[in-house]
Amino acid sequence: xxxxxxxxxxxxxxxxxxxxxxxxxxxxxxxxxxxxxxxxxxxxxxxxxxxxxxxxxxxxxxxxxxxxxxxxxxxxxxxxxxxxxxxxxxxxxxxxxxxxxxxxxxxxxxxxxxxxxxxxxxxxxxxxxxxxxxxxxxxxxxxxxxxxxxxxxxxxxxxxxxxxxxxxxxxxxxxxxxxxxxxxxxxxxxxxxxxxxxxxxxxxxxxxxxxxxxxxxxxxxxxxxxxxxxxxxxxxxxxxxxxxxxxxxxxxxxxxxxxxxxxxxxxxxx
Length: 270
Ligand code: SF4
Ligand code: SF4
Ligand code: SF4
Known about the structure:
Blueprint: H1 3-40, H2 62-65, H3 72-80, H4 83-88, H5 90-100, H6 111-115, H7 118-133, H8 148-157, H9 161-175, H10 183-187, H11 190-198, E1 205-208, H12 217-221, E2 248-251, H13 253-269
Helix pairs in contact: 7-11
Bound molecules: iron/sulfur cluster (3 copies).
Residues 86, 206, 218, 222, 224, 226-228, 233-239 line the site of one iron/sulfur cluster.
């Protein structure tokens, strides 16, 4: 193995560790935001009605002070597809950690798993109906105390049935990740669904070139149970060095495939 190959291999093994460190840092920065969204946001759809929300301690209010914050997600999709899910989202990190102890990894390829991600599109549709269709009703008395357990208890005590249903559905689907790895992020998250719809336009991505022989080695190590550039791939990069035929690359897809085909043609001529 050449020095160059050894260097790129060691970088490949380092990448998942770097990703974990970044995810932990993002949990520290944005984790409280997710906590508010699930347990303390009085609206059915969190983070979209912050400008009229009376919970003044919520981190979600940053979006009402600085609307440009929301530009980050579309910009990140244009450049790196669903990388927000693989690298930055605190919810994704928690789901991936639950996935570590789940009973079934479900890292296989079958027809059901091909269509199951449509669940994300379905939940996105429900969110849009709640938000734009019935104007995101406030369905819980805003809880202003800061204490963690106390605020959760008060939220449940003062919530309407609709808030309880949405919260138990979300928590239930996250907990179901104990039985099917990453169930929430693979099949149910509306934000993931939105990113999934638009990730096709990404300039840079993890992808497999025409050397791929469908061995599925990448799928078996993937936390999202998928293969590069297929449904649910988050550009996390964990699989970059797992391919036995070195078919997995990161960058602009067309360019790399051209290079691969040129090398193949030269070898065939020899
Ligand atoms: S699917 Fe949803 S919860 Fe999971 S990482 Fe993406 S945005 Fe976060
Ligand atoms: S490990 Fe490589 S050859 Fe096997 S399925 Fe993945 S990309 Fe294709
Ligand atoms: S296919 Fe590779 S890059 Fe895509 S999510 Fe799975 S491990 Fe990450």
